[in-house]
Design goal:
38% of the residues lie in helices and 19% in strands. By secondary structure, the chain is of the alpha+beta class. The strands form 5 sheets. The chain has a 7-stranded mixed sheet with strand order 5-4-8-2-1-11-13, with no helix packed on it. A 5-stranded mixed sheet has the order 15-16-17-19-18, with helices on one face. Helix 5 runs antiparallel to helix 6, helix 6 runs parallel beside helix 12 and helix 14 packs parallel to helix 16. The protein binds ligand BES and zinc ion.
């Protein structure tokens, strides 16, 4: 390492630092002026009106003593009254105005106060269209008896159900009092009680400061099964037993992560399994991960998703990206930690197979992206953060950390990652913070292992750097051989050595199929292995995309069932995209969407409508 390279560091840091000096481009809030320290919610859940109504009281820290105005984020909220609350709890009416609605960011709520009040109280209600809530009729649940509602606040949907500073650069504690129909359970990203009475009133406290995107609520007919001393699974009664079995290793996962990265700091780690319309695989709401039922494969082969959401308890919930432009600090670290957990609990073979599949799929994805979208640190000004979602912050982020791991060795790299979490706990961070910490704790301590130009290319370059470590799975060698023989016509589908294949071996095999397999090949595979109709969502969506490309229309009824039932975007958008490529496929897709859309989550409905070019 030359001195010149070291001297280049400050310039690079400043370049990265500029993004931090700016505000979060996805929020109207002005946290440098005044920031929210605590939130008190008092809300009633009304399933008939599909609304939450009540009060949000915000405790404020004023940083500019002359300031009198508070700007909050909202989207589609009806603001009824705003009051300033003084130190003695006395209320006085405050004036406010709501800006015109921006399609991506919603409406800034501007509150003008006579003095820097310690608290403001906002009386409001949500609207049925709230982008962060899904209201489900009884018919959409497993028991078909009770309605269901759940939130998904990340990236910027908390503002559609609470008026607040909707930016991860601000952290606050919260309390909530929620009124719901008797017999239903309310879950929040807070101190849930397994034995709570279903008496229509729930109180919550979250005394650890969290960013707004981790605010979460769900209400429905929810049973509970404990799976360990600090873990439980909540789910609809018909699902809870299977879910508890599938997720029985959760405590082992927590223990494995603690061994690597220090104590779990959130007391309990519960899992809430939502109805299949949940638009994501999982969401790391603190103390209670929200998860799709599509990971209940019956053989624990998809529980890496739980490892992922659990990992966020360190990377994301404890150390939080200050805005979505630095999302790799959340998702890249988490994807890295997830793989370390899988390795510790299920062994190196499985962990490596996951790396190989993900690396290959990332390369394919990146090949179709604009150079700007391929960068770990991005400029998302004016861009909907939900649109910016790709494998880059996840898999390229992890790859960068694997690169550092391979150069420094686990003996030094693991304590470094642990120290990163410890030293930035309950803070919001940007890439600059990581670089400064890296410089002090790895680069300067163990000089000569990694060049600054390499770091710069990983963070700011397009593509995957040539120095990326290559993962190799010997189990995949056999899969590749079988795939090649099958495609060459020298091995019949029924003779594939697939009897003992785990999910990732199937994914490897399906990914080895050509862009347009023949109908005969697809039919033969189906006859031998019954892939059409599989209960494994990861296998299913890749297989269905292949059937569409092949023109193997016999799979269509099962495709329809799949995309009617499931709302997880990752699993169904690729199918819609593949169908939309031909006129006939598109008409079929539009027909299914017409039936499915009433049951879809607002996010899923929007994404699918966009793919098909039709109205929501
Ligand atoms: N935090 C994300 C979900 C998310 C990201 C929601 C950005 C909105 C905006 C969550 O941890 C996640 O990454 N889920 C993945 C899990 C997978 C990578 C194992 C998902 O839902 O597919
Ligand atoms: Zn994640």
């Amino acid at each position: 390492m030359t001195l010149i390279r070291w001297l280049a560091l400050p310039a690079m840091l400043i370049a990265t630092h500029a993004a931090w000096a700016e505000n979060d481009p996805h929020s109207y809030a002005e946290p440098q002026v005044v920031s929210v320290r605590a939130l008190a919610l008092d809300l009633a859940v009304d399933f008939d009106k599909r609304e939450l109504a009540g009060n949000a009281e915000l405790a404020l820290d004023w940083h500019d003593p002359k300031a009198r105005s508070l700007v909050l984020d909202t989207r589609d909220l009806v603001i009824e009254t705003v009051a300033a609350v003084d130190a003695d709890g006395r209320e006085s009416k405050a004036s406010f105005s709501l800006d015109a609605r921006d399609a991506i960011f919603g409406s800034a709520l501007r509150i003008t106060l006579d003095e820097a009040a310690p608290r403001v109280r906002i009386r409001y209600r949500t609207q049925p269209v709230a982008s962060g809530l899904q209201w489900m009729a009884p018919a959409q649940t497993a028991s078909r008896k009770h309605p269901f509602m759940f939130s998904q606040s990340q990236a910027i949907h908390a503002r559609s159900w609470v008026p607040l500073q909707d930016t991860p650069s601000v952290r606050f504690t919260y309390t909530a009092r929620i009124e719901a129909p008797r017999g239903l359970r309310v879950i929040m990203s807070a101190d849930n009680e397994v034995a709570h009475a279903l008496d229509g009133e729930f109180r919550f406290t979250m005394n650890q400061p969290i960013p707004s995107y981790l605010l979460a609520i769900a209400v429905g007919e929810l049973a509970v099964r404990e799976t360990g001393p600090r873990t439980a699974v909540y789910a609809e009664p018909a699902v809870v037993a299977a879910a508890a079995k599938e997720f029985e290793d959760t405590e082992a996962m927590i223990a494995a992560t603690e061994k690597l990265y220090g104590p779990y700091r959130w007391e309990r780690y519960d899992i809430l399994v939502l109805p299949a319309s949940f638009p994501f695989g999982g969401m790391e709401n603190p103390r209670v991960t929200f998860a799709t039922p599509t990971v209940i494969a019956g053989d624990k082969s998809l529980v890496g998703l739980i490892a992922h959401e659990l990992a966020h308890s360190w990377s994301g919930n404890l150390v939080t990206n200050a805005n979505a432009q630095h999302m790799w600090l959340n998702e890249g670290f988490t994807t890295y930690v997830e793989n370390r957990i899988v390795e510790a609990v299920y062994g190196r073979d499985v962990a490596t197979m996951q790396l190989v599949v993900d690396d290959q799929e990332l390369r394919t994805e990146i090949a179709g992206m604009k150079p700007n979208e391929q960068r770990l640190v991005t400029d998302l000004t004016g861009i909907d953060p939900d649109e910016g979602l790709s494998g880059v912050p996840y898999d390229k982020g992890r790859w960068f950390l694997r690169f550092l791991e391979s150069r420094y060795g686990r003996a030094d790299f693991d304590p470094f990652v642990r120290a990163w979490f410890d030293s930035h706990a309950f803070k919001s961070v940007v890439t600059h913070d990581f670089l400064a910490f890296y410089d002090e704790n790895l680069a300067r301590k163990y000089p000569g292992k990694v060049g600054l130009a390499e770091i710069d290319e990983w963070l700011h370059g397009a593509g995957v750097p040539a120095d990326a470590p290559v993962a190799h799975s010997t189990r995949f060698d056999a899969v590749d051989k079988a795939a090649a023989d099958f495609l060459a016509g020298t091995l019949a589908a029924k003779d594939l050595p697939a009897r003992g294949w785990v999910t990732y071996e199937w994914l490897r095999f399906i990914n080895a199929l050509p862009a347009t397999p023949t109908v005969a090949q697809m039919k033969a595979l189906d006859e031998a292995w019954k892939l059409t109709g599989t209960g494994n969502g990861e296998i299913a969506f890749r297989w269905y995309v292949a059937t569409v490309r092949a023109g193997y229309t016999e799979a269509r009824p099962r495709i329809a069932t799949f995309i009617l039932r499931i709302g997880r975007r990752k699993l169904i958008i690729p199918i819609y995209e593949a169908l939309a490529k031909t006129e006939d496929g598109k008409q079929f897709a539009i027909g299914v969407f017409e039936k499915a859309k009433a049951g879809y989550h607002p996010l899923t409905r929007g994404s699918v409508a966009k793919v098909l070019g039709v109205a929501e």
